[in-house]
């Protein structure tokens, strides 16, 4: 058997097969293209100091991204990070976006449009110009809840109805209605929770908080904060746990997945509470609701793979590690994903955000890493070529297409 022809065919499929990006965020609008430090492309660190930017630019991830972007831009091999930044800031924005998106072969994007940048980013359907299939929404439930609570507080103030019980009832009713409306919306592919950032993944199982004295006190406090400085952030366990439970229940009834941020994040998370293992009681409580563990759950990938292997309703996204980890780190994560997770339950994403380069690097590096891991397995006679190709097609397209009910056919560009 000519193994070289098998490897060549695997390479062709890996680097050209259409992809569904099952979790990403919107591009910055052209007028805001340089409003956020570009180092956010390769790190989750808060970049509010020169030292943080220097640290990010000193990583293996940045060295590799620099070389790959320099090649994309047609710069010399000796271009450094600052040269790359200067060059990309001068390229016409439409040209920049298209040059980054064209090589990705992304057919469909599922965009979490609740990242919090408001007017600085484009609406989700704007991204349709780069894909063969329409973009779909992922509803971030904590952002939805904050908007609803703000409106409820403003209504209470206007009507001079400041009773906490009335505020709570209005909030819960409106939240339930909004979740059901989103679940019935054909533009919405699923939901996402960032409980990991707010109170941790040890989400309690609750069905009601109408009689919860602590919830009433928290709403009173939140109302006072909002009336004082117009700021509101839900990071209070009784309320956040209820929001997640309500989402799980309603999403399950509608057959739509719930994504969870797990693992890799900025310093706003409590690392010990970001392991998906904490979600086990919630997973068991809602066996009819599809749960997607985002971001490879890094560094808790083994725990995520375990959950994916033993619960019918759990799926694993291997995203965000591109381009945040070194090439060796990415290959190791994919190996850990494949250690135990069924290959009909894994999905890929860029976690692309703000910059078109995040989509480019997130795709290029994912394809490279998956190819290298599968190539190695073929060379060791652990996989046949058809088995490896099946993994590629499922990971990049078929699984997300099925799990999110997209009903797409792969389109080759």
From TrEMBL:
<feature type="domain" description="Amidohydrolase-related">
    <location>
        <begin position="245"/>
        <end position="406"/>
    </location>
</feature>
<dbReference type="GO" id="GO:0016787">
    <property type="term" value="F:hydrolase activity"/>
</dbReference>
<dbReference type="InterPro" id="IPR032466">
    <property type="entry name" value="Metal_Hydrolase"/>
</dbReference>
<protein>
    <submittedName>
        <fullName>Protein fluG</fullName>
    </submittedName>
</protein>
<dbReference type="Pfam" id="PF04909">
    <property type="entry name" value="Amidohydro_2"/>
</dbReference>
<dbReference type="InterPro" id="IPR006680">
    <property type="entry name" value="Amidohydro-rel"/>
</dbReference>
């Amino acid at each position: 058997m000519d193994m070289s022809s098998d490897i060549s065919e695997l390479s062709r499929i890996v680097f050209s097969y259409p992809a569904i990006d099952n979790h990403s965020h919107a591009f910055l609008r052209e007028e805001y293209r340089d409003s956020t430090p570009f180092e956010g492309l390769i790190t989750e660190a808060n970049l509010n100091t020169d030292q943080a930017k220097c640290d990010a630019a000193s990583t293996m991830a940045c060295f590799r991204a620099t070389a790959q972007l320099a090649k994309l831009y047609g710069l010399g091999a000796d271009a450094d990070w600052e040269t790359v930044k200067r060059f990309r800031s001068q390229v016409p924005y439409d040209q920049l976006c298209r040059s980054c998106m064209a090589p990705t072969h992304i057919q469909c994007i599922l965009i979490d449009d609740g990242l919090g940048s408001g007017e600085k980013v484009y609406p989700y359907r704007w991204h349709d110009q780069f894909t063969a299939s329409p973009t779909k929404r992922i509803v971030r439930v904590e952002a939805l809840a904050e908007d609803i609570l703000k409106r409820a507080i403003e209504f209470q103030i206007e009507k001079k109805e400041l009773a906490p019980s009335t505020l709570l009832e209005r909030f819960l009713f409106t939240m339930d209605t909004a979740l059901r409306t989103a679940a019935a919306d054909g533009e919405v592919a699923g939901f996402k929770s960032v409980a990991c950032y707010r109170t941790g993944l040890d989400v309690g199982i609750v069905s009601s908080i109408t009689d919860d004295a602590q919830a009433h006190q928290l709403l009173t406090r939140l109302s006072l904060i909002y009336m004082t400085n117009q700021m509101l952030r839900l990071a209070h366990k009784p309320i956040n746990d209820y929001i997640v439970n309500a989402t799980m229940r309603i999403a399950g009834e509608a057959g739509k997945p719930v994504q969870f941020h797990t693992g890799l994040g900025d310093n706003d998370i409590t690392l010990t509470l970001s392991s998906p293992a904490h979600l086990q009681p919630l997973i068991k409580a809602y066996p009819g609701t599809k749960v997607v563990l985002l971001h490879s759950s890094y560094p808790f990938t083994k725990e995520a793979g375990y959950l994916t292997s033993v619960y019918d309703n759990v799926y694993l996204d291997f995203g965000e590690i591109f381009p945040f980890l070194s090439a060796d780190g990415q290959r190791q994560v994919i190996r850990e994903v494949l250690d135990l997770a069924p290959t009909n339950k894994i999905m890929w994403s860029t976690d692309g955000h703000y910059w078109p380069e995040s989509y480019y690097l997130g795709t290029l590096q994912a394809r490279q890493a998956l190819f290298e891991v599968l190539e190695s397995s073929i060379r060791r006679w652990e996989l046949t070529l058809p088995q490896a190709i099946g993994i590629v097609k499922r990971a990049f397209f078929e699984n997300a297409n099925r799990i999110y009910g997209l009903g797409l056919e792969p389109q080759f560009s």
